[in-house]
């Protein structure tokens, strides 16, 4: 396996956890300020806070949710490439994807202007699409006799 292709995935995992703590660090004080008691209603969900607190408070939570969506395609893609043998272009594309997702997170959690956010999402999605195609090609056109036993 090639660790170089796994490093961007590990960084994205760490970034996702940073966003989790960012979300909690913004939301919990806002809940207290708004007088919302987390224990008052059993079964509450994050979505219940829409409209109950200022929209800006929910932006990190929205981004955290996004980090639990599309990157679920990224993680197996890099594992496939690690197993099959990632090239330099694969490693570069993986880092581009992760860098753009981090910039997207910061933008969404702070400024949240949709045109820029959409552009960041689009370019990162194109990097992921390219990685996914390369992973599919690596498996579909692999020479099984060349693989280690």
Automatic annotation (TrEMBL):
Cell compartments where the protein resides: Membrane
Membrane-spanning intervals of the chain: 5-24, 73-98, 118-142
InterPro entries documented for this protein: MAPEG-like_dom_sf, Membr-assoc_MAPEG
Coiled-coil annotated spans: none
Keywords (A to Z) from UniProt: Membrane, Transmembrane, Transmembrane helix
One cellular component term from this protein's GO annotations in UniProt: membrane
Superkingdom of the organism of origin: Bacteria
Protein's UniProt name: MAPEG family protein
């Amino acid at each position: 396996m090639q660790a170089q292709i796994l490093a961007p995935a590990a960084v994205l995992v760490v970034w996702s956890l940073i966003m989790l703590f960012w979300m909690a660090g913004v939301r919990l004080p806002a809940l207290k300020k708004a007088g919302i008691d987390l224990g008052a209603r059993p079964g509450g969900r994050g979505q219940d806070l829409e409209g109950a607190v200022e929209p800006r408070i929910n932006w990190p939570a929205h981004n955290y949710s996004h980090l639990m969506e599309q990157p679920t395609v990224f993680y197996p893609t890099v594992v496939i490439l690690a197993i099959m043998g990632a090239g330099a272009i694969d490693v570069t594309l993986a880092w581009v994807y992760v860098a753009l997702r981090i910039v997207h997170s910061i933008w969404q959690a702070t400024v949240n202007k949709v045109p820029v956010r959409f552009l960041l999402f689009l370019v990162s999605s194109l990097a992921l699409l390219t990685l996914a195609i390369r992973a599919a090609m690596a498996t579909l056109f692999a020479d099984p006799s060349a693989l280690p036993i």
